[in-house]
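W.,

You were right to be curious about this one. When I first looked at the sequence I had no strong expectations either way, so I just let the prediction run and decided to look at it fresh. Below is the sequence, 602 residues in total, followed by the output.
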Amino acid sequence: MILIFGGTTEGRKAVAVCEEAGKPFYYSTKSDSQIVETVNGIHVTGGMDEAQMRSFCREKKIRLLVDAAHPFAEALHRNVAAVAKRSGISVIRYERDYPERDKELLWFGSYGEAINYLEDHHIDNLLALTGVNTLPKLKRYWQNHRCWFRILDREESRSVVEQEGFPFDRTVYYDQGEDDVSLFKRLKPQAILIKESGASGGFNEKTAAAAQLNIRVLAIRRPVLSPSFISVYGPNGLRKKIESLYPVFFELKTGYTTGTCAAAATKAALTALLTGEEQSSADIALPDGEVVRLPVFSTVFEGQRVRCSVLKDAGDDPDVTNGQEIASTVQLNTLHKDVCFLPGEGVGTVTLPGLGLPVGEPAVNETPRTMIRREVAGVLHRFRDKLSDGAAETGVDVTLSVPGGEEIARKTFNPKLGVVGGISIIGTSGIVKPFSSEAFVASIRREMQVAKALGCRHVVINSGAKSERLIRQRYPELSPQAFVHYGNFIGETVRIASELGFERLTLGIMIGKAVKLAEGFLDTHSKKGVMNKDFLLQLAQEAGCPEETVKAVREITMARQLWEIIPPSERTFFSLVVARCYSVCKPLFANGELEVLLMDEK
């Protein structure tokens, strides 16, 4: 069993990750005021001391602890560390995103240090944004000076105010429709006191508002956690770490795309080039901003160049590149200021239009290119002192390579798509989720069961992260649990929605999968069916497209080229695609309202 300590935004995200397993787990919060949306999680309330925590772990057979509590929950962190050490249980710390410490702020290691500063500098009007539980720690100050406290509008918070004897007319509530700037203008504090609570704690917003009004900011540094805690920085990192530390919890393991591996290898190689040090791992940001850590397989110094590689981990997805070495060789180039992608062994070259890349370029898709540029910029900024004068904006040549990639590519559709000489470096989310087993279909069913249990009447199914982002803009009122990824299993997902009795089903689909579904393929994996050009020509003729458009359809290599070659005046073609998709899926969802949304890249 897994025990999560939460009560925070990170705690709710940890619950959502564990829900994906469809197995029971425990979720502990200090009070019962937080609403926890969980079907498989068992909510435990009430703070535990070390002895109670140790007893709970023994009785419930806890095999893994996830500390997703507030960074300033110091007693809890100490108890978790002590229990883990005595019981031999691993601890994953679901960490927050912390901005780099601003040197313009005044940083303190304790509340006592902050009080000394306030008194020494004669600050007699303070706004404390540190939470009601810091009233005792600041008592020496507010007993003798004018001080405001912002607290949660809860009875338990008011009871702390009353117990400490703090004047109620000096309290203000969160969530009263007043933003930070308006509050600061109204109270006119000489300084504000905040905790280093990270992005999810509103740290950036508070400091920005104070800077706008030229108000002094005193910040309490976050406590140092036990070095035995294993830090992760988002849901994907948490799931990967659970998969490695408690393998029986998830039936299927996730992986990383070739693009993520290439970005990690590039960051490691550039870091090694600028520091002269061999790299063992690389922390990189996924497209959604989450930071993950990948191990580096090798580092080779080649004069003015460095080559690093990462072994592709595809999880349980049957990917032909699983276990393959993804390498990046980097070299500084003062003749330009950009990241230049050069052809390398085993990475294909684009020879036909339609892939969104210029003909002649290495087959490195736009999302991996963006990830690599971002990591290169970050490394250059971090180690700018190691660059020669005037070279802070130097260019970087990046050569991606995949040993054996040309042979691997023969097992893919790359040659048919006009990518010759190797594989493509791809990935839109940075994460590989297994799409090809009964266990994945079972996970779809579990997600839908969670949505049903939470009272969702309308469920939205889509292929992945990009299409979900687009549809969320259309249905912002739906809860996160109402959005389910079908991967390639459209038919199975529609059947499950029907079996569970949802009243409304929205199917979001992009053109590549849509043309397969329209032809009748309810499983859109490339192993089950490929784009049928004869079928597309038939649709174009039915739509009344002129001969020049029909001829252009005959020449395409990728379905998404249809958006480019079919003008707005002939969009009846896409209406036919949607109608065919609807007719294929409607019999599987006979008793509810079905909506099909066809999306382009934007």
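Here's what jumped out at me. The first helix runs from residue 9 to 19. And, maybe more interesting for your project: The chain has a mean pLDDT of 88.

Coffee later to discuss?

I.
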